[in-house]
Design a protein that fits this description.
Order of helices and strands: HHHHEEHHHHEEEEEHEHHHHHHHHH
Shape: globular
Strand content: 5-15%
Number of strands: 8
Radius of gyration: 24 Å
Number of domains: 3
Distance between the termini: 61 Å
Helix content: 40-55%
Structural class: alpha+beta
Number of helices: 18
Length: 392
């Protein structure tokens, strides 16, 4: 008869881990196929689970198994500065979904950085090229020149998605890793929250990285991408929740204010904007026309018009409320499913994915490592490799 051993885990670690992932007793009990009262008893220290249950509990709580035996909860430090704010208050708590997403990005960035170093790649001169003391227009112009954000890019883009994809390609052609995802890894049961963060960046001069939360609307993703690009240009890594509909003077953090101002100038250059605003037509028509031309949301155009004194503050706030209401009614449908190549390349960055696949196919890294980092099996990796070879 098999002996069932108890796992003498630390009760307060169970409580900490459950609250960390914001899970109810019932939800954990359902995952482990036990009674709710059993989970309550483990957390209160009245009884202990067996080893199998403890391992399943750790998996359900999204922590390493060994954490359950710690005497006190670990201090989870975020390696990136946190620039997120709510009004005039700074956000402090980060979810397990965000932390796991960040750790995955750091793992990929670390691998790719070593790959580039071994390949003898040169440092990127635009990372940290400017500072907060530099002129917004000068920084914006340098970004536009370097990444080709111009009328040609806008003309070639029929939709906001086309413009976003083109801008991402231009970023990657200059050596910037761009990861885009709406869930943790490939786990559709762990969605990312736009209320928590829209993006983050790692301002490394060999392997700079930007992550975009694709749970957001496409037009918002464009602004977030450019906002994070500005972070790279001033050498400031960090977590952002940039608000593309607020005035650029609103954020209390000086870094975020600078990045918002510069991002707006990159996307809608002040020079020429006033000429394109047609006084002969109404504001709604201008917003519609210019949002299509600049490939940004009407809210960004609206804010730009206010900042350049084309419309009044009263008009700005009234129309801003209307645009916010429209946003809430128009939830964009996600188009990520069904195309494994698109998912792998967008979630992992085209450059990084190609590097990983190449190393795996040539036997320089194990297939398991490639599978783990890309979040797909070798069959899918083989198909992607075959398609990339054909299009090369």
């Amino acid at each position: 008869m098999a002996v069932t051993y108890q796992a003498f885990i630390t009760p307060k670690l169970v409580k900490w881990a459950r609250e960390r992932v914001q899970a109810t007793y019932d939800a954990i009990a359902d995952k482990l196929a036990v009674e709710t009262q059993e989970v309550v008893s483990w957390e209160q220290g009245r009884v202990y689970p067996n080893l199998r249950q403890a391992r399943e509990l750790a998996a359900a709580l999204k922590i390493p198994f060994g954490y359950l035996y710690l005497s006190s909860p670990p201090i989870e430090k975020t390696p990136l500065p946190d620039f997120r704010t709510i009004g005039t208050r700074r956000r402090t708590k980060l979810s397990a979904e965000f932390r796991d997403t960040l750790n995955d990005a750091l793992l990929k960035q670390d691998w790719y950085k070593e790959y580039l170093r071994e390949d003898g790649r040169e440092r990127l001169q635009f990372i940290g090229k400017f500072s907060l003391e530099d002129d917004v227009y000068r920084v914006a112009d340098d970004i536009r020149q370097t990444l080709g954000v111009n009328d040609t890019l806008r003309t070639l883009a029929n939709t906001w998605e086309d413009f976003l994809s083109g801008l991402v390609r231009n970023c990657e052609s200059k050596g910037i890793i761009v990861l885009r995802n709406s869930v943790v890894g490939s786990n559709t049961h762990r969605p990312l929250s736009v209320r928590e963060f829209r993006g983050f960046n790692i301002a490394d001069d060999l392997a700079p990285l930007i992550f975009i939360n694709t749970r957001d609307a496409k037009t918002a993703q464009i602004f977030t991408l450019v906002h994070e690009i500005v972070h790279l240009w001033i050498g400031k890594s960090g977590i952002s929740n940039s608000n593309l509909v607020a005035r650029t003077s609103d954020p209390i953090n000086k870094v975020e204010r600078f990045c918002n101002q510069t991002a707006a100038e990159v996307l809608i250059p002040e020079a020429g904007f006033s000429d394109k605003w047609d006084e002969a037509i109404d504001i709604e028509a201008n917003l519609s026309h210019l949002s299509r031309e600049y490939k940004v949301s009407a809210s960004v155009v609206l804010r730009r018009a206010y900042e350049l004194d084309i419309i009044s503050y009263t008009m700005y706030t009234r129309l801003l409320k209307r645009e916010m209401a429209i946003w809430k009614r128009r939830k964009e449908r996600r188009q990520e499913g069904g195309n494994i190549q698109y998912l792998v390349l967008s979630r992992n960055s085209t450059n990084l994915a190609i590097a990983l696949i190449g190393e795996a196919m040539e036997g320089r890294i194990s297939p398991r490592d490639a599978e783990r980092m890309l979040g797909v099996g070798m069959d899918a990796i083989g198909k992607i490799s075959e398609k990339l070879t054909k299009t090369a």
